[in-house]
Amino acid sequence: MQSYTIGQAARLLGVSPDTARRWADAGRVATHRDEAGRRLIDGRALAAFSIEVGQGGAGEEETPYTSARNAFPGIVTAVKLGDVAAQVEIQAGPHRLVSLLTREAVEELGLEVGMQATARVKSTSVHIDRT
């Protein structure tokens, strides 16, 4: 499973690294250390926490999240596979985006909960890029 540094998690959550560090220090999201001593957050834990943040449960700091050219970098919070179709949810800061795409596309991208991805929005379509 992919893990994220405090800085990467902050970018995905749409907050400053200091805010992400304070949340980790307060036990809001669990961290572990790698061989180099850096604090990391497990992708699944970050995905669950990003949902809380997106629903307004973050608390103290309200930092607006903006997107250039309709690209929303975030973290995959849910993948629902059907026989032919699939549904992928991404939490990008305070924004929750849902895309309906083929099961084949999800499998080719290797999308799973906790991994980083970018939702691209054009009109009524949401496209997912693995990052």
General description of the model:
Helix 1 packs across helix 2 (17-25). The chain contains four helices and eight strands, in the order βααββαβββαββ. By secondary structure, the chain is α+β, with helices and mostly antiparallel strands. The strands form two sheets. It has a five-stranded antiparallel beta sheet with strand order 6-5-4-7-8. A three-stranded antiparallel beta sheet has the order 1-3-2.
> Could you say which overall geometry the principal axes of the C-alpha atoms support?
globular
Note the beta-strand portion.
35-45%
- Judged by helices, strands and strand pairing, the structural class is alpha+beta
User: How many strands in all?
Assistant: 8
Strand order of the largest sheet: 6-5-4-7-8
Quickly count the helices.
4
Order of helices and strands: EHHEEHEEEHEE
Given as residue ranges, the uncertain stretches (5+ residues, pLDDT < 50) are: 60-68
Q: Distance between the terminal alpha carbons, to the nearest Å?
A: 15 Å
Summed over residues and divided by their number, the pLDDT gives a mean of 86
* Proportion of helical residues: 25-40%
What's the Cα radius of gyration? Answer: 15 Å
Main β-sheet: number of strands, strand sense, barrel status? 5 strands, antiparallel
Itemize the secondary structure elements and their pairings:
Layout: E1 3-5, H1 6-13, H2 17-25, E2 32-33, E3 39-42, H3 43-57, E4 71-81, E5 85-92, E6 95-102, H4 103-109, E7 116-122, E8 125-130
Antiparallel strand pairs: 1-3, 2-3, 4-5, 4-7, 5-6, 7-8
Helix pairs in contact: 1-2
